[in-house]
């Protein structure tokens, strides 16, 4: 419950109180995540070199009783235990003897930290789970320290120190995060706190997606405005309840001197959101430019997209739509696909992708988000014999390589859509994917099935999806030429 709450408090409400019939069918990618997580956990446990007490075959009260007996004996490591105290219930993967007590640990099929390598920090969703276990141990007088750990997908043990401040300004600790999440969860369970759905990145994999989207549409919720989000919506909610109400209002009424009446939302940001509200509610809405843009002029263009399996940490497909002379009939889809999940296959696909790019120089390269550049930098570090770090920087030189999302769409355009994903914008422009449920998550699930079966039809499904993503990027690039510049507030 705490894990879900960090991503979306309303999911907790729906899980507790909504009609089960409103739930969507399980998402295949989410099922894959659970499957891979369980498999990785079994692999880790099978590979342990030290003795441990295995309580995974037991359940409910018997599991709890055996866990307490094992800790009473002082067993060094307990796997699959169950603990509870004062209405708190937890199933830690691991309980490890430390000093006179125990600390809890979880086995995760993801990285134990998040953020850039030079400024990484513990994951809050993991921290609130581990905080619960630690709290229960403390309440039972069985805690060895206010500390926990994660064994992550890289084989690393990542320490979660609940007393060490991690906030650069407010000296916030993970224990503060846990206590805050616990209080909110208890308030939701008791009915003291009401939650609202909010449209965001986590929605599409949630089993309440359809029910929440229906509710959001009916309410005209402010989170339908791209990038406004839950926290800003909650800040504005006392004065503005819907997109239509906001669109009809004069933004000047929300100004107080050089600031707005909404903490954390400046005048320029408020004006931007107001323009988007008007776009979403206008019958004749059209996308526009907030400022002029300048795209490179090359006879040849590459529209570029990659597919990555984060669970196996492999980039399995590099796809390119190659166009000449701005003639769509000249388009050709070329790609580099891994033969298997071995590192050598990934290295060969990376090398082949770079060759495909070099063979088409000079050209403009279009991609959507920083992800491609980030992954290519990572691949270069993994396979330095393929190319140099400078080669990657040259490849993504903005003189010829354009991140359409960060450098164009976000900075200079407005659209009458809920979000600015390539799927949303290309569909708005009339483009259709051949697959009925296209998504990066679905591609990963298909790739897993191809690895397991070798079925060429599944491989082709992955390729078709990637090709459509590349073509969608081309559709967006061409549409930008037709947009008119409209200054902020004049829309």
Summarize it.
With 491 residues, this protein is an alpha+beta fold. It has 17 helices and 19 strands. Helix 2 runs parallel beside helix 6 and helix 15 crosses helix 17.
Attribute tags:
17% strand; six-stranded mixed beta sheet; 17 helices; 491 residues; alpha+beta; globular
Could you describe the 3D structure shown?
The protein is α+β, with helices and mostly antiparallel strands and 491 residues long. Helix content is 43%, strand content 17%. The strands form 6 sheets. It has a 6-stranded mixed beta sheet with strand order 1-2-5-6-9-10. Helix 4 links the parallel strand 1 and strand 2 (77-79). The radius of gyration is 25 Å and the shape is globular.
Rg over C-alpha atoms, rounded to the nearest angstrom: 25 Å
Strand order of the largest sheet: 1-2-5-6-9-10
Strand content bin: 15-25%
Structural class: alpha+beta
Tell me the helix content: 40-55%
| Biggest sheet character | 6 strands, mixed
| Average pLDDT | 94
Specify the overall morphology. Answer: globular
Strand element count: 19
Distance between the termini: 43 Å
Low-confidence stretches at least 5 residues in length (pLDDT < 50)? none
What is the tally of helical segments? 17
Task: Set out the fold topology.
Layout lengths: L1 H6 L1 H9 L10 H19 L6 E2 L5 H14 L3 E3 L3 E3 L2 E3 L3 E5 L2 E7 L5 E2 L6 E2 L1 H16 L7 E5 L5 E5 L12 H17 L18 H11 L9 H8 L6 H6 L6 E2 L2 E2 L6 H15 L6 E2 L10 E10 L4 E11 L2 E11 L5 H16 L5 E4 L3 H12 L6 H7 L5 E3 H9 E2 L7 H7 L11 H14 L2 H25 L11
Parallel strand pairs: 1-2, 6-9, 14-17, 17-18
Antiparallel strand pairs: 2-5, 3-4, 5-6, 7-8, 9-10, 11-12, 13-19, 14-15, 15-16
């Amino acid at each position: 419950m705490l894990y879900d709450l960090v991503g979306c408090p309303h999911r907790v409400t729906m899980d507790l109180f909504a009609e089960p019939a409103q739930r969507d069918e399980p998402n295949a990618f989410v099922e894959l995540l659970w499957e891979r997580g369980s498999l990785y956990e079994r692999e880790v446990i099978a590979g342990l070199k030290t003795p441990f007490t295995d309580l995974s075959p037991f359940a409910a009260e018997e599991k709890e009783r055996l866990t307490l007996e094992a800790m009473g004996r002082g067993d060094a490591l307990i796997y699959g235990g169950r603990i509870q105290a004062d209405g708190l219930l937890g199933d830690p993967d691991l309980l490890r003897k430390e000093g006179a007590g125990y600390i809890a640990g979880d086995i995760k099929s993801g990285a134990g930290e998040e953020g850039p390598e030079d400024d990484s920090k513990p994951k809050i969703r993991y921290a609130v789970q581990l905080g619960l276990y630690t709290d229960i141990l403390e309440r039972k007088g069985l805690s060895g320290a206010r500390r926990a750990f994660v064994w992550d997908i890289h084989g690393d043990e990542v320490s979660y120190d609940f007393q060490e401040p991690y906030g650069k300004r407010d000296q916030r600790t993970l224990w503060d995060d846990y206590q805050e999440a616990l209080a909110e969860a208890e308030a939701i369970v008791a009915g003291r706190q009401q939650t609202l759905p909010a449209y965001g990145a986590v929605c599409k994999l949630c089993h309440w997606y359809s029910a929440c989207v229906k509710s959001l549409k009916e309410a005209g919720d402010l989170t339908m405005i791209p990038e406004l989000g839950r926290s800003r919506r909650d800040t504005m909610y006392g004065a503005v309840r819907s997109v239509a109400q906001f669109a009809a209002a004069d933004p000047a009424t929300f100004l107080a001197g050089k600031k707005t009446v909404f903490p954390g939302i400046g005048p320029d940001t408020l004006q931007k959101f107001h323009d988007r509200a008007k776009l979403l509610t206008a019958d004749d809405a059209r996308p526009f430019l907030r400022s002029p843009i300048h795209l490179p002029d090359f006879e040849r263009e590459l529209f570029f997209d990659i597919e990555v399996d984060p669970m196996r940490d492999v980039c399995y497909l590099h796809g390119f739509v190659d166009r000449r002379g701005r003639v769509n009939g000249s388009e050709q889809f070329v790609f580099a696909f891994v033969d298997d999940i071995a590192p050598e296959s990934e290295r060969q696909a990376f090398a082949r992708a770079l060759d495909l790019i070099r063979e088409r120089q000079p050209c403009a390269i279009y991609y959507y988000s920083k992800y491609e550049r980030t992954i290519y930098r990572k691949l270069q570090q993994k396979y330095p014999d393929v190319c140099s770090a400078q080669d990657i920087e040259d490849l993504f030189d903005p003189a010829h390589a354009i991140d359409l999302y960060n450098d164009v769409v976000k900075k200079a355009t407005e659209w009458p859509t809920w979000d600015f994903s390539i799927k949303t914008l290309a569909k708005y422009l009339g483009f259709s994917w051949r697959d009925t449920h296209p998504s990066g998550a679905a591609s990963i699930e298909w790739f897993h099935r191809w690895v397991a079966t070798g079925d060429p039809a599944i491989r082709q499904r992955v390729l078709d999806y990637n090709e459509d993503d590349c073509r969608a990027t081309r559709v967006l690039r061409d549409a930008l030429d037709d947009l008119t510049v409209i200054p902020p507030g004049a829309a």
